[in-house]
Hints:
Layout: E1 2-9, H1 11-14, H2 19-38, E2 42-47, E3 55-58, E4 64-67, E5 76-84, H3 88-101, E6 106-111
Antiparallel strand pairs: 1-5, 1-6, 2-5, 3-4
Helix pairs in contact: 2-3
Amino acid sequence: MLYAILCYNDENVVWNWTQEEDDAVMGRLGVVHQKLQSEGKLGPSARLLPTTAATTLRSGAEPMVIDGPFAETKEHLLGFYVVDAGDLEEALGIARQLSEANPSSTYEVRPVHLYLPDVRTGTPAQTPQARIAAPESV
């Protein structure tokens, strides 16, 4: 089953890291990435630019485009991983490894349902029968 592991942090802290601090965190995460890649568990991942680079489209009678994130919050979504884990417990184990490498971040684990296929890789969308039922409890 695919899980998204969303990484949250105070972007005012993260985007003010020195190059050395950033390199150290990315180096520790790289060790986890290599392990997950060798196990065939790491899917796509992304590091998002700060929310100051974001634009939000709010739906409504007249859709509105605004600068910045949808919500004001101290912690922002800074990036995400897609991992292939057997169950929630295994996905939480992966999140724990990421957290050990980057302890200042918060990691949210959420099951993923592929909505559209990835035409670049040939990964098919899941059929309705493969949809995730009730979330697993922790």
